[in-house]
Amino acid sequence: MLEFTTLIDALTANKNPNRTISYIEGIDSETEISYFDLYNRALSVLHQLQTNGLKAGDELIIFTKDNIAFIDVFWACLFGGIVPVPVAVGISDEHRSKLFKIFQKLSNGYCIANDDDIERLANYAKTNGLSSSFNDLKAKTIAFEKIEINSNKGEIHQAHENDVAFIQFSSGSTSDPKGVVLTHKNIITNLNAIAQGAAYNENDISLSWMPLTHDMGLIGFHLNMIACNMSQCLIPTDLFSRRPLLWMQKTSSKKATVLCSPNFGYKHFLKALGDKTLDNINLSSVRLMYNGAEPISVDLCDEFLTKLSPYGLKRNTMFTVYGLAEATLAVAFPIHGQQYRTIYIDRHQCRMADKVVFIDKDHEDALSFAIEGKPVLDCQVKITDENNSTLAADTIGDVQIKGPNVTQGYYLNEQANMTALTGDGWVNTGDLGFLHDGELIIIGRTKDIIFAHGQNYYPHDLENIALQHKLIELGKIVCYGIRQDKEQRDELILFILYRKDIEGFAVLAREVAKIINEQTGLEADHVIPVKRIPKTTSGKVQRRILGDEYLNGEFDAIISQLDAINAASHVALNEDMTAREKELKEICQSVLKGIVLNINDNFFDAGISSLTLAEIHQKIDDKYPDVVDIIDLFEYQTIKELATFMNEKL
């Protein structure tokens, strides 16, 4: 049980010269700083922040990829009562735009950044009409290059448990980034729950490549280690991206016991490993590997554990968990030391308030989900319907949380608070799930659900189905539903990472659309090649960015180009159509969207759903009453075959 009431208390009590942070910079390069030295470095930085005019209650955006600089400044803020606001530097304009939006929200905001990043912000502002905003930012920005560690000490602010410790802005890029306000009490409560749920002890050693701007990186793999008096190792995220095998090499050499990664990290490592072997690697020290931050891929868990079992990685190390920034971090944990468990449900019974139907894993309609476990200490979970009424066990609904670890709201954002805060301390997470035997199973994000044919479909499920194509990899396809006002369904748009010729993509697009149609009955309205899949710094796919780009017309030219390629292919194959074939083809094309149907194309192979086929039948029946029965379309499955059948009857 942690006895601290604030984070300041935690580092002050554990400023131990024998507990260290190893900042890993390469296979043979690292910097080691003890907790004792961190304490003194933070007070030195605090002196310089206070000299620059910052005082308790002011907010400071920390904008750097340098882990040492980040942590020094973060703790300086805590000691001075300054509110740190971590913001990911990233590599895209989306990240720079986010910084400007966050700065404009702050009551009395400052920023600390490297000179190079300040220059990039200036260039971005110049080309995006934000010069005035940049001037405001620049006037309150401190360059990291001007910060030096010396013997001067800042004045420590007396913190209380209900004081704001820091603000965690959402990692996604939206028009209105939401700042989760976390108090010292929120954080200490959740750190204690994590420590107990994971059975941490002072001999544990953590190793993480997660960004410190993400709750798992900062809270789960830095603050938790300070509070539990554990040594920790940090790999820069961009270094892991370039050299993923370093992750397990350092795990072995450091004898790390606690690791973490979302799906994409495990996949990235396995792709880099390929058929290679790891020399002199022993992973027997690892006892926990957190897996969270996005829907957990059961197949990927199994592949990773199987691939690394020859190196001593045990199957009971995979720790499938659920959490989010609004809960500080952790919401549900399984029992540590047990093998991860999976549950299989019918994909057609996944709507709000549906009672889940459990089926065999080999059933064609089986959806697999990892079991995330029971709520952690001091955190409550309930499942509710759209009217905020609590649902029974094994019933799908909104996941809500409550407890002293849960935020009381978003920073100066009344609209977000009205949406998420449901009353009496409960917060709607925005996730859908259900409770089974008291354990939580998360099935997706409410906002990502695709509605079609009266059912809900989940992007990650459709993306997993697309993986059946040999050219599609995890993280290289994005499914997104876009609601059109005149339609009673969502448009289904597939985005595929592709950088080769457009003619080749047209073939791939048809094949992927066919696979999804065969498995689900859904028709893809458009399959679009993209040169990048936008993700957060923790690897979570940002589907909405691609959806917004589609709505803004940024893919219109490529869609037209694909339509032309398909039309040319269609003309070549249909030059010798009979009058009946031409007539039937016109009927089919009047119903179909995004599908060019040749007279020899099989209806089902082309990705036509049974509902769309019923529409086609209705139009045929309107023109030729009682000539064609709906079941005839299942027997005569091409325009050519159907035309021949009709000619015999007419």
UniProtKB/TrEMBL annotation:
GO terms for cellular component: plasma membrane. Signal peptide: none annotated. GO terms for molecular function: adenylyltransferase activity. Residues 575-650 form the Carrier domain. GO terms for biological process: fatty acid biosynthetic process. This is Polyketide synthase modules and related proteins.
